[in-house]
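Checked the freezer inventory, then went back to the computational side. Two predictions to log before the end of the day. The first one is the construct we discussed on Monday; recording sequence and tokens without edits.
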Amino acid sequence: MTNVLVLEGSRDTVRINTCRYALLKYLEVYNLNPPPAIAVYVYTDQPALFESFIPFIDHFEIKEVSETQFKQWHGSPGFPQRVKMKILQEVLEHINGNVLYLDTDTCIQNSLEPHFASIENGAFLLHSCKGNLNEDSEPAARRLKKFLTDSSIKQNDNAISTSGMKLWNTCCIGINSKFKTLLDDVLELTDIAGSQFSAPVWESFAFSYCFQKAGNIQACKDSIYHYKNLKEFRKLLQLFFRKNEEESIPNLVKGLRHLDVATIQKQKSLYEALPLYKKWLQALKGKSWSIKQYEKKI
């Protein structure tokens, strides 16, 4: 069966840079020799920025998408999360096998073969479980629960039931092509309710609900890192690619030793968890956490 890793890097510099970073991390994990059994598809409106990866991945396809197509995929509500659903639908229509989609702000940390094996055995992959929807204390989840309680949302003429349902992080999605029609249900649920409840949590709910009804969900957070709420890293990536625009792919991979996002996020989190007086002391010593300390190493 075919194994396909799917990424999207388009529409703005941030998304393109995070996609290029994910590809470099992928090559780093496999020491510039990724398995030929994994094909890589990149959906982009800037194909020239990804051509340098072609010699290093046996089956690497650049899927050029126009701005008009992206707007169509957003749909009439203008819901950006629909893009990943439409991309998944397109890939699943043309392959017989396993698909793993990575969102922006994610990167690979360990080999992916075990996850593709799980997908082939019928499991759905999502990044990590956020907990039971009815017990989630996040404001967005509470609003979603209230909306579902107060509304009469149905799918296939059946009322939505969230009893015992878990909410998952959908920054990465794994699915086998035999379940491709399930994406129709995800998209339908997104369109029906997304027009009435405008919040990103709805995408998470749509995938979580449809996948749980259809089978078993497994987490892939052990191999895929999600660096959320780290805007400073986006600036660092911009600097990295600007300063190294003439470098080869192998040299860019070597440069990642100063650009490990997991380490950077951990160090920032540790600093932010300090009591205020300790932050003041760090500031007095000139040791406050700042993205500038990593800029100097690039």
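The second is the one RB wanted added to the comparison set:
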Amino acid sequence: MKDIYRHAKAVGAMLLAAAVVVAVPSQLWADGMVIPPANYEGSLEEQSQEAMIIFQSSDIPGGATEDLILKITVEGAVDQFAWVIPLPNQPTVKKADAKLFKELYDYVAYRLRPRMKKGSMGKLGGSFGAPEAAADVKVLSREIVGSYDVAVVRENRPGTLNKWLGDEGYQRIRSGEEVIEFYRRKGYVFTCVKVSDTELTADKPVDLHPLRLTFKTGGRDGIYFPMKMTGLQERRFDVNLYVFYGAWLNDRLNKYGYEHRGFHRKYRDWDSRKCKPNAGKNWARPKSDPFLRSAAARIPTVAKLLRELHPGERHYLTNIQAFGLDPAEVRNWPDDLWLFPYYVNKRFIPYDARPGSPAAPAYQR
């Protein structure tokens, strides 16, 4: 970006001494909502959720791009469900490797020491029915992605997304019209995910791999993560995010920091004496990076993905978490979670938080 910003410097030893080692929670929710079949009367809860975000800012309004990689576990005696994820723009959807999350967890544990107890992931299932059941819900794309049948839809008239889900054989999003309308008015799309019929009928276990959704955020410097629909759940939930970006993220510098949304930093990369200040790390080729070299053997899958997606870019990893978020409070947030760069000037307003920009609703109150 042309406007120069730089992150605050930190001494590695001080960061390690101040870091709080927190065990990965056994239950992690976020990003959207799981919806059971219409005739299902049992409990269906999103048991575990993690996300990896790779963000590329832009000098051009609307030019920023984001790779959002999601891993989910659903608990419930059911083999079908719909997973609905709101996004600012239509994504491309690809299969991702579950090893990404294991490697990132191990990397953070290696940096923080002592090692922490690993979390667990469960199973999920389901399959879509007819391709387009409601005239007022436009199906933008539909394809099989690895184990999943993925439909990206846009609701054009209030109430029709719930009708579309009902016609697909799934329960409506209970008490969700207000939240759905919030996204409809913003022009967002809904990515609906199920395990494909092909995978369910195959004579083998279903490979419940993560999904990578790549999309335009609609802005320049705001990193997006959907939260409001998760607020429709009844139980408190936790969130665990691994964010890759070319600079540090604003934690509590001003009202645009993520700590004001109940998140706290577990870990972030820093600049050692051998590093070029404020230049990020070569995650695509960690063996050549003085900071990452000692950990390179732990992150081969992460490095491979960064080489494929952003071979010439450098990033800092920031791991942030929130525990015990109250669904009612999240539902009342004016917008989803937006993360911003660490602009040294405390009075500087992030581009995407300004009036008329994608994250502006979060700061208009």
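For RB: The longest helix spans residues 99-112. The helical segments are 12-18, 99-112, 160-167, 177-185, 197-201, 300-309, 327-331. Let me know if you want it refolded.
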